[in-house]
């Protein structure tokens, strides 16, 4: 009976140690957002589309003053983009991906706050 309790206790400890609340320890984990942006009407890839991962810092001394951190890129000729940020620096409660180009309505996406790749293909609707 005692051996069974020790085994169960060891399994519970192992599960707790491997669970997501302990995942914040590695400050080098990266959030990688990628995808392809196309014209919402024709389906053709769009080059030069502005793509930005944006968030308000948690320790923002200018709350309400518009301070925003962002990582920007533009789509390539094939419409592809890739935005990357250190997960430990992103404020997950305010983070969003902005996809915008003149002549189209902007699209805002709220990515999951996790490390690794996330794919967001976007069909921009014409304005």
Summarize the structure.
This protein has one helix spanning 2-17; strands spanning 30-39, 50-55, 69-74, 80-86, 96-100, 107-109, 116-119, 122-124. The protein has 127 residues and is mainly beta.
List the helices and strands and how they pair.
Elements: H1 2-17, E1 30-39, E2 50-55, E3 69-74, E4 80-86, E5 96-100, E6 107-109, E7 116-119, E8 122-124
Parallel strand pairs: 1-7, 1-8
Antiparallel strand pairs: 1-4, 2-3, 2-5, 5-6
Output the CATH homologous superfamily. Answer: Aromatic compound dioxygenase
Which architecture name does CATH use?
Sandwich
Helix content bin: 10-25%
Secondary-structure element sequence? HEEEEEEEE
Structural class: mainly beta
Radius of gyration: 20 Å
In total, the number of domains comes to 1
Q: What is the total tally of β strands?
A: 8
Rounded to the nearest angstrom, the distance between the terminal CA atoms is 70 Å
Quick one: biggest sheet?
4 strands, mixed
Approximate shape: elongated
At the first level of CATH, what is the class? Answer: Mainly Beta
Instruction: Output the number of helix runs.
Output: 1
Low-confidence spans: 20-25
Beta percentage is: 25-35%
According to CATH, the fold-level topology is: Protocatechuate 3,4-Dioxygenase, subunit A
The average pLDDT is 85
């Amino acid at each position: 009976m005692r051996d069974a309790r020790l085994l169960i206790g060891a399994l519970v400890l192992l599960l707790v140690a491997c669970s997501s609340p302990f995942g914040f320890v590695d400050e080098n984990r990266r959030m990688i957002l990628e995808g392809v942006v196309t014209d919402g009407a024709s389906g053709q890839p769009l080059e030069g589309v502005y793509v930005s991962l944006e968030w308000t810092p948690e320790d923002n001394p200018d709350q309400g003053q518009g301070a925003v951190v962002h990582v920007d890129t533009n789509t390539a000729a094939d419409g592809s983009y890739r935005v990357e940020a250190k997960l430990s620096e992103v404020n997950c409660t305010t983070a969003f991906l902005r996809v915008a180009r003149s002549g189209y309505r902007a699209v805002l996406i709220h990515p999951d706050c996790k490390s690794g790749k996330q794919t967001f293909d976007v069909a921009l609707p014409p304005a």
